[in-house]
Amino acid sequence: MSDTEPGEVLPDLLEVDLEELRTIQHPVLREVLEGLRERAERPSEMLWGFSRCM
Amino acid sequence: MRATTGGRHGGAVVSGQTAPVPASTIPSPFRQFIVKVHGRCNLACRYCYLYEGPDHTWRTRPAAAPSEVLTRTAERIAEHARAHGLPTVSLVLHGGEPLLAGADTLARFTDDVRARVPADCIVQATVQTNGTLLTEKRVAVLARHGIRIGISLDGGLPEHNARRLDHAGRPSWPAAVRGARLVAGRFPASYAGILTVVDPVLDPVETYESLLELGPPALDLLLPDSNWSAPPPHWEGARHGAWLCAVFDRWWTAGHRETRVRLFEECLALLLGLPAATEYLGLAAFDALVVETDGSIEQVDSLKSAYEGASRTGLDVFRHAFDEALDHPGVAARQAGVASLADRCRVCPLVEVCGGGHYAHRYRAGHGFRNPSVYCADLQLFIRHVAARLARDTGVASPVPVSIEGVTP
């Protein structure tokens, strides 16, 4: 799927089931989803917005 | 698992089919406290957003935060945490170069904050440093007191850091890389990661791979603090966006997650309808506050790239509780979601992911901050790229016909 041309369409990802996504064999995404799973359950506790620090 | 109702928002405009979520009018308490423990820096980086920009307020403030400022700040943090029942707060030891205050001072202050907050409130402490003053002894102190270390570098090679010079014009790289390797090798549990400002003239993959060599558990890639009245160098042609896309592809196809790249993971989270933690994307209420070396309560430094005094609130820790800062118009604007955005942003199908970009990047002299980001084209390029990769490589989403071009206000 190309993505950089004018008139590019965007995929609708909001209805994706996160558990189903974790079964997909994409190693980077699988690791990312481990962290996102907790975020879905406890949205704000561990999210820090300030950008000028790690 | 489908996320709980509170975890994922429905009806995002990314699909092009529903309206943006209305902004809340109830202020979100501050949860992140950036404390300028020292207001000067041992470096004189030529592009520094703080010392080379239009704001010069640092010149009139104490170099080091006096003990009475630190004590009062700790009291105010505890007061705010107690008033709002905060389960966790983030304490960011910042500057200037915070290690100029001394590792022992940082440790004492952090301990004081932890002693004063309610017993069930966790204080996550981080120091953000240029790395040049990291020694075994100092890092040991920080580690012992539960302070994680973030390092600011522009890449993992000497030539990437050619503009990071000391006041005598000497490269900071030898000392900085020594500090980074010390933390990575001897104190990995204290290593928060590396912060890098994007320079589109540098090779993106080379820059990323050179940073990996320093073993960071996380990276963040920041767009230079710029705005419509002071655009960044090499702005034309969405070069910053293309640079980010190139690094994303390298990171995404690595076969395993080599490091966490905050900007990328926050973009993925937003595309999946989850809350995000970055000033660069999303519509989440911004809940960070700064205390300067003289006790002034301010908004974040990046606003200073717009104009002199842009971050000022007129409040200070001696006379005002942090709650009073919640009523400041600038603070409220950053918690208002779509209500603060330019009209063009409000109707953009990317708004729930982009969020209008970093607040400071929207500034235009005479027009305030209600504009698209100066990086609008870059953000569109990057977000579409990540969305397409996510959809393509997981095969779970079908395209929806919406798009919008990058705009100028």
Account of the 3D structure:
Chain A: This is FXSXX-COOH protein. The complex is a heterodimer of chains A (54) and B (409). Chain A is built from 2 helices and 1 strand, in the order βαα. Chain A is mainly alpha-helical and 54 residues long. Chain B is an alpha/beta fold and 409 residues long. Helix content of chain B is 30%, strand content 13%. Chain B has 12 helices and 11 strands. Chain B has a 10-stranded mixed beta sheet. Chain B is globular, with a radius of gyration of 21 Å. The chains are: A mainly alpha (54), B alpha/beta (409). At the A-B interface, strand 1, helix 1 and helix 2 of A face strand 2, strand 3, strand 4, strand 5 and strand 6 of B.
Produce a short descriptive summary.
The complex is a heterodimer of chains A (54) and B (409). Chain A has 54 residues and is mainly α.
How would you describe this structure in keywords?
heterodimer, A: 54 residues, mainly alpha, 37% helix, 4% strand, extended, B: 409 residues, alpha/beta, TIM Barrel, 10-stranded mixed β-sheet, 12 helices, 11 strands, 13% strand, globular, disordered N terminus
At the third CATH level, what is the topology name of chain B?
Answer: TIM Barrel
Strand order of the largest sheet of chain B: 7-6-5-4-3-2-1-8-9-10
Q: Main beta sheet of chain A, described? A: none
Query: Most extensive interface, residues per chain?
Result: A-B, 44 and 87 residues
- Number of separate strands of chain A: 1
SS field, number of helical segments of chain A: 2
Q: What count of domains describes the coordinates of chain B?
A: 1
Shape of chain B: globular
CATH-defined architecture of chain B:
Alpha-Beta Barrel
Radius of gyration computed on alpha carbons of chain A: 15 Å
Order of helices and strands of chain B: EHEHEHEHEHEHEHEEEHHHHHE
CATH class of chain B: Alpha Beta
Shape of chain A: extended
Beta-strand percent range of chain A: under 5%
InterPro entries (chain A): FxSxx-COOH (IPR026334)
Protein name (chain A): FXSXX-COOH protein
